């Protein structure tokens, strides 16, 4: 009887080549065990991939074997479809240049790719392709690309990895004076994983519908036309992969007078319910679910009902199970909490200017409204104990994961664009802080530096990091001009202010390379040093772009124009908040940069640390600034389930002769935690703690050090094991005192089952756009 697996032995041996700790035989044996008479060639390829995948938990390098077997499948699929291209069976036998030309021609003919791509110098473009880089992917990263990113015709993929990166790079270089040269420069950054664009850019750059931006922020005004226009805007913005942050504070509250009908308002909640359903209806072409977050200021009369929106009990007509929510908290409220005094809730139709004020001006005006209410001059208001409302906010955060806690005053007082408006909310993942109004929809264009690619055992490489940041800033600035805008308010705001959000990923990987424990002063110092280097390079790059291309239109009178950099704007916050505890030390020559910045900036905003769930997986590093979730676990996303092993831990245990089947079993038993495993040295336990084993204050300290350098914000999850009310209270007050602009999820082990029940439907599929406690990933931004 013939062995259908034997014919693929060479493919498997090619896949394991160069990987010393893996073997072809277990893969072939596992595939034979699942073989059957009549098995097709495609089924054999899948069996081999699955066989390699099952071995990842015992040897992390099998992730590269599984990826290479998937790559073999992809090559056959793409080359078989593109007629006239030699279908080499191996990576080495592939004429990548010939393939790329055929791919480009067919993609343009199918109206997938922008015809302008054919105008590049294709000889130079194809010469720049590096086929060997197809082999650097782990299985999870390549499977995600295969499932959701690679261009396809009728479900058949036509895009190989290097073609994918070059297509994105060419799309971003379309309007450059030297487009071919710049495309090659951008391709180098992407294909070496030193920088990665956000998901919308990867989806759409170089295509016929180039919506490349990640996040959109809107303000909803207090009239039906504006409210229903906001639903349409949300749908149009989400259609092409945008994540949404909606400021609902101006909408009058429950019981407020409606002059046109002489009736009373039902408040903001019924409108939020419709926004929730709109979010569900628009699924971004099947690539991702629609994603939105509603923000409300803490003084709004409906805030108590707003806190309940994500509960699974109560009137379902007043619940939003599929939309995220966030509190927009002024400092005055926190001061009332700390003083244990009263807090007054108002309807914004009677106190409209509170929405536009912040800092001392907000506090003064708020007290005037309280006095007016006491005199009977304000119709709709209610007084509560500030501490009680704060406790309800934290209780709902603990029980449902929402609403998140974000801080209005630092977002505005430290905003470079104070002269042109007000930051009324953040975005879906709490890292964007841009002005919005009924005339302007804020847009942010994101990408992340892979910090792990810029460190060695000797430390951070600032020269290479600066080079990467300069390239990245040029790419992000190009997004603004190339971008396809679905609504005019977004186009007007983006072209006027030109904000971008450069972030980072692979922070914990960098610490592992440097042998620095995350819960240490060294880690806090590294967070400070690395972010200062990124900040200096990003601001320098924007100033250089301004010299080449001109400053953004609203530059005059900005903080930049006044020579006030992010590190300097801490002083503006400190003037109104004596409780502030932020480090202000600096290492680099900021004095010289201040003078350059006075002369011009290309971008109103330059930095924001977004979650990087998907693009970090593509690059094979830990997402964003997140701690390790577990050292071994099974990850689920839209592409399936994947075993994830901490490769640094595995390498350290191998070196000590401790990596064996029994160790894998113990890691599974203890949910990836090293603490209970006696034979693991204390040094390694300190290096590789899981998120819930950390004292979360270390994460806040590191975030505070980063925040001093960032002109926007950072998406920061907080972790607590079996928390008490006092622990949560102290943690969020600590975050406020340390100058954080925003926080994201509060993840607690005790709330795991609550959040899972909130987020999953009866079929087990993710029902909300947010992240479950067991899979802390957000794919809406990056």
What labels describe this entry?
782 residues, alpha/beta, two-stranded antiparallel ribbon, 44% helix, 11% strand, globular
What does this structure look like?
With 782 residues, the protein is an alpha/beta fold. Among the domains are: 6-192, no CATH class; 215-420, Anaerobic Ribonucleotide-triphosphate Reductase Large Chain (Alpha-Beta Barrel), CATH 3.20.70. Helix content is 44%, strand content 11%. The chain has 30 helices and 20 strands. The strands form seven sheets. Strands 3, 4, 5, 8, 9, 12, 13 and 16 form an eight-stranded mixed beta sheet that branches. Strands 1-2 form a two-stranded antiparallel ribbon. Strand 14 (455-456) and strand 15 form a beta hairpin. Helix 8 (161-172) packs across helix 9, helix 18 crosses helix 21 (521-549) and helix 21 (521-549) packs parallel to helix 28. It is globular, with a radius of gyration of 26 Å.
